[in-house]
Amino acid sequence: MRNLIKQKVSVIMNVHNGEEFISEAIDSVINQTYQNWELIVWDNSSTDNTYKILKSFNDNRIIYFKSDIFDKLYTARNKAIDVSNGDLITFLDADDIWLPNKLEEQSKIMQDSEIDFCYSNFFQINKNSRKIFPPKAYYSNLPCGKIYKNLLQKYTVGILTLCLRKKSIIKFGISFDPRYSIIGDMVFVLKLSEIGNCYASQNCLACYRTHQGNLSKKKVLMQVHEMRLWFYELKKFGKWNQSIYKSLENLTNYQRARGLISKISLLQTIRIIFKIKDLNLIFRFLIHYLIYQLLKINMFLKKLNYKKVENL
């Protein structure tokens, strides 16, 4: 237990106008069974009651930084890491929560000096902190070891479950790419997984909250744009392998199709479907497209009936 206590954990919490959920997120850190941590709250120019809420927590392990300028998320992540003092680095966004044993389990895992980072499964919850369907993000075994190619086939690392050595970040010379706004977590973990060795806990140790802010079409299309930029750079620097990146490319085309569903014609939709090249994703898109068209027809009929009533 003595060695376990020596590992100080830095919890990186980047926030911008997070008053709605941040109290629950901070409580989930305070309620950890493992108590040797510091919580670095990097406030990215919030204009709401975020600071007022933070002041209500009387805990000197919570360290608050207020940025005078608005940075992109991954610039802010890098700045928060730079001021951290922990042996281990973890991440918790202001709208997510941890289960009480998260840090204890991962601190024990990281006692193995051969492991550079670890991660786990997680639950999915709604705005009211209730589990949604499916409750678990992943049901199959999460990969361990050198997992770079596994993640390209199926990306399974939630940033809210990631735990890594600060020494490994320095040794590998990696950081978050500040150009991105959406895919920076994934690109960072992929870089880490190319070099480092990892362990995956099959247990759910955290809860990812889905709400309107992280499900918007604007964010989906921004993600698609950033993925295409990343693909372009891989090709430019000779790192592109069609067989390895095919799954991610198909998923990107699927997300693009869903994001554009209300803006494109039937012919354009068919063209996009042919770019997906994955039967499972094509089937999922067709179901989504059918539901969208039915809702569109239903809305049209309601408007028609409303006009008829008005004319009576």
Describe the structure.
The chain is 48% helix and 18% strand. Helix 10 packs antiparallel against helix 11 (242-259) and helix 11 packs parallel to helix 13 (279-311). It is built from 13 helices and 9 strands.
Order of helices and strands: HEHEHEHEEHEEHEHHEHHHHH
Strand content: 15-25%
- How many helices? The count is 13
Amino-to-carboxy terminus distance: 79 Å
**DSSP summary, beta strand count:** 9
Residue-averaged pLDDT, rounded? 92
Largest sheet, if any? 9 strands, mixed
| Low-confidence residue ranges | none
Bin the helical content.
40-55%
What structural class do the secondary elements suggest? alpha/beta
What is the global morphology? Answer: globular
Radius of gyration: 22 Å
Write the layout of secondary structure elements.
Blueprint: H1 2-6, E1 9-15, H2 22-30, E2 37-43, H3 50-55, E3 62-66, H4 73-82, E4 88-91, E5 97-98, H5 102-109, E6 117-125, E7 131-136, H6 148-153, E8 163-165, H7 166-172, H8 184-195, E9 198-209, H9 212-215, H10 217-236, H11 242-259, H12 266-276, H13 279-311
Helix pairs in contact: 10-11, 11-12, 11-13
Compact summary:
The protein has 13 helices and 9 strands.
Summary tags:
single chain; 48% helix; globular; 9 strands; 13 helices; 312 residues; 18% strand; alpha/beta; 9-stranded mixed sheet
